[in-house]
Amino acid sequence: MTDRIRRILEQLEQLEQLEQMREDLPAHSDDIRLSIDYHDSEVLEEGFAFKKPYNAQVVAFDALAGEPACEGAFFTVI
Predict the structure, then answer these.
(1) 0.85 exceeded by pTM
(2) Any domain includes 23
(3) CA–CA dist 64, 70 (Å, integer)
(4) Distances in Å between the alpha carbon of 50 and those of 29, 36, 43, 55, 78?
(5) Is residue 72 part of a domain?
(6) What is d(CA 71, CA 28) in angstroms, rounded to the nearest whole number?
(7) Residue 76 to residue 78: CA distance in whole angstroms
(8) Is 31 exposed, middle or buried (0-12, 13-18, 19+ CB in 10 A)?
(9) Is residue 9 part of a domain?
C-alpha cells in the first residue's frame, strides 16, 4: 500500500471518529441534564453554570466538525 493511500485511509478513519463524536455529544448532554437535581436550587445553579458554557463549546465543535469542513479535508487528501 502506498503512503498516499495509507494517508487517505487514516484521514477517513479520523473523519469517521469525528462523526461518531458528533453523534455522541447530544447523548452526553442529555446525561448531564438528567443528572441535575432541579429540586435543589444550589445544584440547579451549579448545573446551569456548567451547562451554559458546555453548550457553547458543543456548538463551536459542531461548527468546526461540520460537513463542509469534512468535505474539504477529504478533498485536500485526494
Answers:
(1) no
(2) no
(3) 9
(4) 11, 11, 10, 9, 41
(5) yes
(6) 26
(7) 6
(8) exposed
(9) yes
pLDDT-flagged residues of the chain (< 70): 67-78
* Domain membership flag for residue 32: no
Number of domains the chain contains: 1
Query: Which pLDDT score, from 0 to 100, does residue 51 have?
Result: 92
Distance of CA 34 to the CA centre of its chain: 19
Please give the mean pLDDT across all residues of the chain. 83
Closest CA to 55 of 25, 76, 75: 25
pLDDT tens digit sequence for 27-45: 888 999 999 999 999 999 9
Give me the helix-helix angle, 41-64 and 3-35, nearest 10°.
160
What pLDDT is stored for residue 12 in this prediction? 86
